[in-house]
Design goal:
single chain; 6 helices; 42% helix; alpha/beta
Length: 135
C-alpha cells in the first residue's frame, strides 16, 4: 500500500501538467464558499506544521504521511470512518502537493466522488492574510 501510494505520488507529479485532475481544485475564494456550506476541511499535514502556521478554523486534523513521506498506518481507517464515498470533503496541506496525491487516490482508487483540493494549500491562504487558528 505504501509503495503504491509513493508510486501514485510520482506518477501524479509527472502527469500533473498533462491532464485535468479527477477531483476539483479550489482557490481561496472557492474554499471560503465551501466552508460556509459546512463541507468538512481536512488538514492532512503533521502536528509540527499545524503548530508552526496554525490551521484554517474548524479544520479536521488528520496526518496523511510522516516527515519521511511514509503513509500513517491509521490514516485511511480514520478517514473512511468519518467521510463517506459520496460525501463532499476538502483537503488542505502546505502547498497542495500531498493533497493532490491523496485526492487522486481517493477518487481513482477508492471511488470517492466529491473531493476538493485547496490548490496552493495553507501557504497561499496565509499569503493572502486569511485567518488561522493557532494550536
Amino acid at each position: 500500500m505504501i509503495i503504491r501510494l509513493i508510486g501514485l505520488f510520482w506518477l501524479a507529479m509527472i502527469l500533473s501538467g498533462c491532464a485535468e485532475p479527477p477531483y476539483n481544485n479550489l482557490d481561496n475564494e472557492q474554499l471560503t464558499i465551501k466552508l460556509k456550506q459546512n463541507i468538512p476541511l481536512y488538514d492532512i499535514r503533521r502536528s509540527d506544521e499545524w503548530s508552526q502556521t496554525g490551521v484554517v478554523e474548524n479544520s479536521q486534523l488528520l496526518t496523511f504521511v510522516d516527515g519521511s513521506g511514509r503513509l500513517k498506518p491509521d490514516f485511511f481507517k480514520h478517514f473512511t470512518a468519518t467521510v463517506g464515498k459520496h460525501d463532499p470533503v476538502i483537503l488542505i496541506c502546505r502547498t497542495g502537493n500531498r493533497t493532490d496525491t491523496l485526492a487522486r487516490h481517493l477518487v481513482e482508487q477508492m471511488g470517492y466522488t466529491q473531493v476538493y483540493n485547496v490548490r496552493h494549500g495553507i501557504s497561499r491562504w496565509i499569503g493572502e492574510n486569511r485567518p488561522v487558528t493557532r494550536l
